[in-house]
Write a structure and sequence with these properties.
The protein has 2 domains: 155 residues, SPOUT methyltransferase, trefoil knot domain (Alpha/beta knot); 64 residues. Helices cover 50% and strands 12% of the residues.
């Protein structure tokens, strides 16, 4: 599932335009972070995407919005400054995404975009190449390009089906990690936090099969050791 997360939109009209673009490409799950009021202008520009607006989730912070996703893609007009170590071109986005992920595409404020600390909260960063004299696209136009690239792949095949077996192995790895946490940590909130961090490491790292299998073997031995079978 894909979520479009629009951070602190400043124009109701842009919210409507984003909803329209989403429906154009078959995306329906919109999350608005601390938005302006959704007024008549939003519905006017959404045209036939009123259903996307009406079903939009509204949250107070980006942290709340990210709770809905496993993998977050930050968007920015600028990739300089080394804010995030993982950069993915728009053309290659679909190849980075497993069909088993809940994916969030994060849109920034119209006037200033995403802050560095917000980009750091995401798993990868993408940008759309444009003329250096004015590289900043309208938010709905930028989203249209991103969703078009993903739509092309979705239309012809499942997104990254080659990742499915790897995702099964990662799920097994996560299950073993949960068992280990149960043995070494009594406090549930700390187990939950550690599990969340571990899941983010797995999704952020684009781990190789060898890395996943190596970790899986080590974790299995640890679990068996705790269970007295090794």
């Amino acid at each position: 599932m894909f979520y479009i997360i629009f951070v602190e939109p400043e124009s109701s009209g842009n919210i409507g335009s984003v909803a329209r673009v989403m429906k154009n490409f078959g995306f329906y799950d919109l999350i608005l972070v601390n938005p302006v009021e959704i007024d008549e202008q939003a519905y006017k520009l959404a045209v036939h995407a009123e259903d996307v607006l009406k079903s939009a989730k509204i949250v107070s912070t980006l942290e709340e919005a990210l709770d809905f996703v496993d993998f977050a893609i930050a968007t920015s007009a600028n990739t300089s400054g080394g804010v995030l170590r993982n950069y993915t071109s728009v053309e290659n986005l679909a190849e980075k995404i497993s069909s088993d992920f809940n994916v969030g595409i994060i849109l920034g404020r119209e006037s200033s975009g995403l802050r560095n600390e917000e980009i750091e909260m995401c798993d990868t960063l993408t940008t759309i190449p444009a003329d250096n004299r004015y590289p900043t696209l309208n938010v709905s136009h930028a989203l249209a390009i991103i969703l078009y690239e993903i739509f092309k792949v979705k239309k012809t095949k499942r997104i990254n089906p080659s990742k499915d077996r790897e995702m099964i192995e990662k799920d097994l790895l996560i299950e073993d990690f949960k068992k280990i946490l149960g043995y070494v940590e009594d406090r549930k909130y700390r187990r939950d936090n550690a599990l969340t961090v571990f899941k983010h490491v797995l999704t952020r790292g684009f781990n190789t099969k060898r890395e996943v299998y190596t970790l899986k073997g080590i974790f299995r031995r640890i679990v068996l050791k705790f269970e007295g079978e090794f």
